[in-house]
Amino acid sequence: MTSMTEQATTTTQVYRVYIKTGAQAIWDAITQPEWTNRYGYTGFADYDLRPGGAYTVRANDDFKAASAAQGYELPDVIVDGEVLEADPPHKLVTTFRMLMDPEMAGEPFTRITHEIKQLDGYCSLTLTHELEGAPKLASIVGGSQEEYGAGGGHAWVLSDLKTLLETGSSFANG
């Protein structure tokens, strides 16, 4: 019999939002830096949308300044990973590692899947984040560190993405 300490534990977080727009608009908002800088934590996401291609996020100047004001200097690249699968505008699978904090940077790469489904005049966007071996990242992206200034994680980012696409303005950036 395997004890609890010997069992492999997998933490998976799943988020779904419904957005009144088309699949291509959602895909563009996820994969194009001019869009990713407009919602959520405001960084420039760059994807090489081929299997094995690089995925990076660079913080913008406002994000860097806000972090510095809280006493945290950000590296130029705050997230890195690799594209595992890209099926525009339906599915994007990448690895993900947050580099903003040395402890999180030391955790293993995790896996994020974005699935976009066109429905009747709107789309569902499902984000699945497999976080095995990355408890600190799981806490941050799960939103449980929000009261400490770490933001609301994936739920907050997806809510802001929905707001931006439906209204033309982000609640994060006015």
Radius of gyration: 16 Å
Query: What profile does the largest beta sheet have?
Result: 7 strands, antiparallel
Query: Any idea what the shape is?
Result: globular
Q: Helices and strands, in N-to-C order? A: EHHEEHEEHEEHH
CATH architecture name:
2-Layer Sandwich
The mean pLDDT is 88
Q: Roughly how many Å apart are the termini?
A: 55 Å
Give the helix tally: 6
SS elements, strand count: 7
What is the structural class?
Answer: alpha+beta
Question: Could you estimate the helical fraction of the residues in percent?
Answer: 25-40%
- Strand arrangement, major sheet: 1-7-6-5-4-3-2
The CATH superfamily turns out to be START domain
CATH class: Alpha Beta
Uncertain segments are: 1-9
In the CATH hierarchy, the third-tier topology is known as Alpha-D-Glucose-1,6-Bisphosphate, Chain A, domain 4
Sheet-strand content, in percent, reads: 25-35%
How many structural domains can be distinguished in the coordinates? 1
Blueprint (SSEs and pairs):
Blueprint: E1 12-19, H1 23-31, H2 33-36, E2 43-47, E3 54-59, H3 61-69, E4 77-87, E5 91-98, H4 102-105, E6 110-118, E7 123-130, H5 135-141, H6 153-167
Antiparallel strand pairs: 1-7, 2-3, 3-4, 4-5, 5-6, 6-7
Compact summary:
The chain is an alpha+beta fold and 174 residues long. The protein is built from 6 helices and 7 strands.
Task: Explain what you see.
The chain has 174 residues and is of the alpha+beta class. It has a single domain (12-167), classed as 2-Layer Sandwich (Alpha-D-Glucose-1,6-Bisphosphate, Chain A, domain 4), CATH 3.30.530. Helices cover 28% and strands 32% of the residues. It is built from six helices and seven strands; from the N terminus they run βααββαββαββαα. The termini are far apart.
